[in-house]
Amino acid sequence: MSTNHLIPLARLDTAIRRVVRGFGSRPEEVEAVAANLIEANLKGHDSHGIGMLPRYAEAFVEGGLKTNASVSTVLDAGALLRLDGNAGFGQVIGAQAMALGIERARRHGCCTVALGNAHHLGRIGAWAEQAAAAGLVSMHFVNVIARPIVAPYGGADARFGTNPFCAGVPMQGRAPVILDFATSMIAQGKTRVAYNKGETVAPGCLIDDRGQPTQNPRYSVVPPIGALLTFGGHKGAGLAMMCELLGGALAAGMTQRTPGGVERRVLNGMLSVLVDPAALGDRAAFEAEALSFLDWAQASPPREGFGHVQVAGDAERTWKAERTESGVPVDATTWAEILRAAGLLGVDPAAVQQDAGLA
């Protein structure tokens, strides 16, 4: 069982910025990447946080991740944009793509953004949050181009990625509703975290390389590779396939249809639909109706073993408040991997250790 470091937020921020500078990133890219990864940890999604840096470093060395890249416009049809991420940091490319979509949705009432060739976009909820902060409803269908890690319903081996779906709904006077999930039972990054901690995963999440059920996370981390299962059986598998068709074939012009190799790069395609509620009608009436429904749903008395009814995004806000106050837990194995990644990027691991207060 791996032990945890508890790193104060300010120290973690300093340490991670030092590592990201090793990519040769300009200051604005360092800020975007470090802030996005740490935010994922703060919100309880360690799978999409700083533990991704070792893979990013390997992808960079291999040439699959391009630093200081910007999104480019392939097609501009007013309320319809087709964008290329140029294999740049998804934390930068995603924000740029959403900024373009937000401007068009404000102008036209809605915008569909087809983004392809972006390196790992990270926590997709960040892009729904960006749209919500601008007052826009959004939906996002995402595919993953890397080694397949999820089995289709009834299949015994991996055929596609974790293919996230996300949606966000803003409302005045309260936090937005942000629904963000992998279409697999758990995100692949969560199996990496479990493997690094020496923990098992819950039953029904994973099969081994022979297609047999297992709780050992190694089968999605190190060879021989098995596969994650989709949530909700055929329903999750169906949504995963739609993410591949919409985020991949339609938005990116690229789907996952090979066994994959040893490359460390992770490319995402994302089809995003942004809508201005005010362009559809009375925004105040929409929000009043939405709030009334949420109040009705959350008034349901809790079942035995449960707390009060939550809506999507509540848990992340609770995690962020706790971790901002108490520090961010990072298991020792993941931290050691980050230090090795720093060395790979030409950054002194001892300086990173010192920044984090772990020297």
Architecture overview:
The chain is globular. The protein is 42% helix and 19% strand. The chain has one domain: Malate/L-lactate/L-sulpholactate dehydrogenase, NADPH binding domain (Ribosomal Protein S8, Chain: A, domain 1). It has a seven-stranded mixed β-sheet with strand order 2-3-4-11-5-6-7, with helices on both faces. The protein starts with a strand and ends with a helix. α1 crosses α2 and α3 packs parallel to α11. It has 359 residues and is of the alpha+beta class.
Quick rundown:
The protein has 359 residues and is α+β, with helices and mostly antiparallel strands. It has twelve helices and twelve strands.
Structural class: alpha+beta
Helical percentage: 40-55%
Separate helix tally = 12
Predict the CATH topology.
Ribosomal Protein S8, Chain: A, domain 1
Average residue pLDDT: 96
Shape: globular
Based on the coordinates given, report the CATH architecture. Answer: 2-Layer Sandwich
Instruction: Report the sheet with the most strands, covering strand number, pairing sense and barrel closure.
Output: 7 strands, mixed
Q: Can you give keywords for this protein?
A:
about 350 residues, alpha+beta, Ribosomal Protein S8, Chain: A, domain 1, 7-stranded mixed sheet, 3-stranded antiparallel sheet, 12 helices, 12 strands
